[in-house]
Amino acid sequence: MNVIFISPQFPHYYYNFCLRLKERGARVLGIGDTPYDGVDDNTKNALDEYYYIPDLQNYEDVYRAVGFYTAKYGKIDWIESENEYWLYLEAHLRTDFNVTTGPKLVDMDQLRHKSKMKDVYQSAGIPVAKYAYLDSLETGLHFAREVGYPVIVKPDDGMGASCTYKLTSDEEFQKIYPTLDQNTQFIVEDYVPGNVETFEGITDSHGNILMSTSHVMCDPVMDMVNEHLDTTFYQQPVFASDIYDIGERTVKAFGTKSRFFHFEFIRLTEDKDYLGKKGDLVGLEVNMRAPGAYIPDMMNLAYDVDVYTIWADMILYDQCFYDINRQYWVGYAGRRKDVQYALSNEQIMKRYGQFIALEDDVDVALAEAMSDHIFLFRTKDKEKLFKIMHEITQHAYTKRLSRK
């Protein structure tokens, strides 16, 4: 089997996807924008061959690379990146090279545009926030006055919380609107009071869920980015829960087959007239790729499995060979480099080293949402998890240090 992996060198831990495929017997062919000498040994060893392109956004060059691999090795069976930034590129290549094992260009609207996602959610009976296309300031102000402030302004086709704003008045709307990229379609939507809960996992070619889990964001990602908060979230039980039920319905509604997926919902913290009661779940958005922020590793820690292998086995054998049995609570705590904390990294490791599974620096391009330095930790009980999370993120002062 020939598998092309786009950008296997970034994020740096994505070599795991390639390595498990190679170990299982697939031929793994990389295409990336880092010169070969700059690619780390883990990635090099996980690939059968690497094709360097200075700019992955130059489609002609990427097309030529896939053509080269096709001429050398035969028909390409899979094209993946597991990175939201390259989903259009994957789909374009699958369309042009008739690779049938993933979404093509015709599928991209409902997988990338927030407005189209809402239509699919609603088709499955899942409530979503009201919205309008932000075609003018007047349109936005009219919508905001109709539903009431606060409202959220964000790109219809965007990644993460980039260029996303929570506005609380006409004055804020009038201030933000001129700063928006006029070449980007924005939407304005009713604010949903609640916390984000995720549902992620892997499906087979029939849309059956092979493995899944869920995480609770302690703060909205939008606030983590815009307010420069420490990034904290944790894994929660998923089976026989409402998050599993709504997640399974979303898998079916979007026709999620042979995919690693990452869905986001909001659990209401108060009643919302047309959406539901406090505690109900509301559809937010879908991502047809592996979750970021080391969540695959958190899945491994919670279930004592290897999701990279589960993903590879799905591609090669269309099944999972693991017994899926959750055993631990797992947390993520990210620190900002411009904040002084009550405990140093060394003190955290000395105090909680037996619980900490990973300590790592985050790539600069991802640190805005993920924080600069992170800890993954697991415990047998929820209370211990929150104690560790609190001590990792406890600030030494109430004021932040100035950025340098």
From TrEMBL:
Top-rank taxon, per record: Bacteria
Keyword Membrane: no
One MF term in the entry's GO annotations: metal ion binding
Boundaries of every ATP-grasp domain copy: 118-316
Keywords of the record: ATP-binding, Ligase, Nucleotide-binding
Keyword Nucleotide-binding carried by entry: yes
UniProt-listed InterPro entries: ATP-dep_AA_Ligase, ATP-grasp, ATP_grasp_subdomain_1, CPAse_ATP-bd
Protein name: ATP-grasp domain-containing protein
